[in-house]
Amino acid sequence: MEMSFRWFGKDDPIPLEYIRQIPNMKGIVTAIYDIPVGEAWPLEKILELKEMIEKHNLKLSVIESVPVHEDIKLGLPTRDKYIENYKTTLRNLGKAGIPVVCYNFMPVFDWTRSSLDYRLEDGSTALIYEEDVVAKMDPLKGELSLPGWDSSYKKEELHELFEQYKDVDEEKLWENLEYFIKKIMPVAEESDVKMAIHPDDPPWGIFGLPRIITNKESLERVISIYDSPYNGLCMCSGSLGADPNNNFPEMLRYFGKKGRVNFVHARNIKHIGPRSFQESAHVSSYGSIDMYEVIRALKDFNYTGPIRPDHGRMIWGETGKPGYGLYDRALGAMYLTGLWEAEEKNRNR
Ligand code: DNO
């Protein structure tokens, strides 16, 4: 596995110098944030980003994300124009030698939580998702914003989007995903850019909007749409693991052995009630996911691709982007590295 770290570009309060000082850190996961969703990314901008990262002896391992325009998810006639732009972006990323692109197919909102600063008993704060709180939230007020979200929608636009999604149920969303995948994958193959679809977070419908990438069956359906290692998955322990019916290590091993795991997000969550969870430290005993089993699964299929510690708590007085502080994610990277080293040495005995 190749240890990597998400970085939100020049505006990220965490400098690349600091990330580089985390032992075993090899790669950066980032994106271009000032291009409106749906427009093609110019090669020069991609090269500029890559150079900035390489200057710090790090590699640009993954683009997370090239966002998918809502018209594609809605299946509107204008989708073809946006798909052409997406293909241009993939071709340019290929020219720059970027190996992996992460994306998602969640309508309107990306990952969602009910509170961003839930205080844990040790005084640290973490992100939390409580179904009853989310049920009372009004998404149209636009009061919640999380790192990586497209926050460019105005209130009226959000209203209109919600109206448009009234005609899109889960099956329709699947049809639109299929259309998208079939169009872009040949270009991903030609450009040697591996695609990794991120599961829905949380893995169930919210605010009346459909969500479809939620379990083993749906991941199987995604990979069967286009039979190629370029049509792969981002296996996210925290997203899939939020549903206690998902056995994350088992799913990881299963899709890994099929050669379809192109990226891994590792973080822990603790189930605190039906459809409710709290984010926790990475260490297995702090949450509901056995991280040692996650590493064993990766070893079982000799994973060489990128992995990143995912959301961290806010500790040691740090302030910053919710889930994306430096300290707890660095601890997560060290913990995963330790588990990997132990498992590797043990197997080589
Ligand atoms: C949250 C992230 C997601 C992810 C996108 C991928 O922390 O895991 O925002 O980047 O869903 O497209």
Description:
By secondary structure, the chain is α/β, with parallel strands linked by helices. The protein has a single domain, classed as Alpha-Beta Barrel (TIM Barrel). It is built from twelve helices and twelve strands. The chain has helices spanning 16-20, 43-54, 70-74, 79-95, 131-136, 155-165, 170-191, 216-225, 237-241, 248-257, 291-300, 327-348, and strands at residues 2-6, 27-30, 59-64, 100-103, 115-119, 125-129, 194-197, 231-236, 261-266, 268-273, 276-280, 306-309. The chain has an eight-stranded parallel beta barrel, surrounded by five helices. The protein has a four-stranded antiparallel β-sheet with strand order 5-6-11-10. Helix 4 runs parallel beside helix 7 (170-191), helix 10 (248-257) packs parallel to helix 11 and helix 11 (291-300) crosses helix 12 (327-348). The two termini are 20 Å apart. The model has no long low-confidence stretch (mean pLDDT 96). The structure holds D-mannose. Residues 64-65, 102-104, 110-111, 148, 198, 265, 311, 323 line the site of D-mannose.
Describe the secondary-structure layout:
Blueprint: E1 2-6, H1 16-20, E2 27-30, H2 43-54, E3 59-64, H3 70-74, H4 79-95, E4 100-103, E5 115-119, E6 125-129, H5 131-136, H6 155-165, H7 170-191, E7 194-197, H8 216-225, E8 231-236, H9 237-241, H10 248-257, E9 261-266, E10 268-273, E11 276-280, H11 291-300, E12 306-309, H12 327-348
Parallel strand pairs: 1-2, 1-12, 2-3, 3-4, 4-7, 7-8, 8-9, 9-12
Antiparallel strand pairs: 5-6, 6-11, 10-11
The structure holds D-mannose (DNO).
